[in-house]
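In pairs, describe these two lines:
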Amino acid sequence: MSDSVDILKKLALQVRNASVEGENTAERIGRIFIGILENMDNSDIEKLTKYFLRKDKEDTANELITFLKGFLVGKNGSGITVLEDGTSQAVVDRLYVKIKAVFDELEVKKKTHVGGEQIISPAGMKCVRVEELDESYRCFFLSEVDGVTINNEFTVGTLALAQEFNIKEGTSHNVSNRYYWREVTGVGTDYIDLNKTNADKDSDIPVAGDDIIGLGHLTDITRQAAIILSSVNETSPSITFYQGINTFSLVGKEVIGLGFDKSTGHAYINVYGDAYIGAKDESTYIRYTQKGGVDIKGMFHIEQGSTGWRNMEGLPDEIQAAADLAQDAKDAIDNAAVGSVNLLRNSGFTGDYETEELSATTELSAATELYSKQLKHWTGVATVSADSAAGSGYSAAIGSLSQSVSLIKGESYVISYKAKGTSVSVSCGDFSTTQPLTSSYQRYTHKITFNGSGIFLISGTATVCDLQLERGTIATDWKPSILDNDKATAGFQAINYIASAIKDGSVDILGGLILANMIQLGNYKCARKGI
């Protein structure tokens, strides 16, 4: 003991006295301890093994050692650990008890295989013998196995099923795939009677060796439930819960289904009833009830690509307003129609460039309009002036102007114009509005659905230009009516008049009277007369 104490004292003294710049205490201790071990001989090390367990060779602890967190054995997770509640848990690959094992509670886990389908239902038996009666087949089972009495779980009215479908026929003597689903008409201590007539179609005759399962009941609703685990059906692997089986059919009896749909390649969960997914304390959840619908508590995210918002009710006012606005915009786009034809004649106040027919009695003055009457097609009072802000080059200071138009009842039209002044009133059919104006030109539009009489009227204290009435809902830039003549047409007409006069013109002299065709330019036209 003294030798070991001396060694430790030496270690302590060297730790206290040693000092290397930049070296912390832990590094110093490690360096010194390694130096001591390197200078120790085997006899010194053996003296220390009385107090320390060896890690480099087998060793024995002579006293009790306490592991507060447990210990591991090997590298495969085996060992003993101390759980948070203070209990210990041992994990081993193989446990062999030489004398006796006592378990307060024993849980046995075992890997098993079930081919085909496994049905969990209120009744089942292994048929060992069959007797044919007048109206039924009596199927016996062993009522006692290894000294244990077996209770008959079948009741009258049970629908008894037997089915085998994985036997390779022709290889075993008197063995084949079998199926029947029959009504139980009688029960005894060690037998059940199966109805000969009340059975599913194509039902086979019972034979010894059949595994018979109660799958449904004619009248007892407490025995009409079953769970089927399948690895062979069209949606396998699947677990299906059934309720209300009272006929030889499972159609419409499924209440919960978990499986894999081979046709879509997708797994599925079907719950035909109430469902709850969430925390036990209901802090967050999704709950569905057939009476109340779906309740969601917690964060709810609607990601890009989601659809169906228009069918949601009860949204917050802001969200609902935004949804309504978006829907209105969509509807407006869907129903929008761009105008294309100006239905107002002479809307630029330029006239139509058609000449006046003059006679010998027509009196002319400096103000006489020989062509392009600037208010042609309009009825009312207005003063037309040249205006560079107008698309046609002319605007009208109005009192009141009106024009007959031919419109379709129930159709959408749009009125547009530029105006400045005090105010202007516009009406068409049963539509009427008054528009306040400013001192400078602004463009205004009015969308209408036409009904009533076909009179377009504009009045007020204002100067207006670029009047336009179009069929549709979207106004376009001003343009003259396709029925109006334009300056280009007038130019072609002037050229045509000159060509006509050159080709067809003539001068006749009758004594002192000269008769001539006068050449008309710029749409001026005079009747033939003597000079």
Observations:
- The first strand starts at residue 70 and ends at 73.
- Residues 169-173, 519-531 have pLDDT under 50 and may be disordered.
- The chain is about 15% helix and 35% strand.
- Residues 317-335 form the longest helix (19 residues).
